[in-house]
Amino acid sequence: MAVPRNALKKWEKVREFALGLPGAAEEFPWGETVVKVNKKVFVFLGVDDGSHPLGVTVKLKDESAHAHALTCPGAEPAGYGLGKAGWVSVPLEHNGAPTAELLCDWVEESYRTIAPKRLIAELDTR
C-alpha cells in the first residue's frame, strides 16, 4: 500500500522537528521509529514503510491540546494503557488531519512534558 505523499511529508517534517530538539535521539524498538530524550520516548512515529497507516503519538498534558488532538479524524487515546497517561495517537492519512505545524507544536508539548529542565531551558533560549 502506497503512503499518501502529503502524509509522508508531514511525517518527515515532524520527525525532523523532533530530532532538532535538544538532546533528542532516534531509536527503532519493535521496528518502529521513536524519538527519545534522556532515554524516554516523547514521540512515537510508527513505521514509514506503508505496512501501517502513518501517524504520530504524543503525550499532551495540556487539556485543551489533548482535547483538540482527540477531535482529529481517526485520533484516539494511545493503546497499551498509554492513553490514560495523556498519550494520543493521531493518524496522518485522513482528510482533515492536522497540519505539520500543529503536529510539531504537539511534539514540542510532549517533549516539554518528558525532557529534563536543563534541556527545556536550552530550548527556551533558542
From TrEMBL:
The UniProt entry, under Gene3D superfamilies, shows:
3.90.1150.30
Gene Ontology terms for molecular function: DNA binding
Q: Which UniProt keywords apply?
A: DNA-binding
Name any one Pfam family assigned in the record. Answer: YjbR
Q: Tell whether DNA-binding is among the UniProt keywords.
A: yes
Q: Which SUPFAM superfamilies match?
A: YjbR-like
- Write down the InterPro entries for this protein, in alphabetical order: YjbR-like_sf, YjbR/MT2646/Rv2570-like
- DNA-binding: present as a keyword of the record? yes
- Tell me the protein's name: MmcQ/YjbR family DNA-binding protein
The species this protein belongs to is Streptomyces muensis
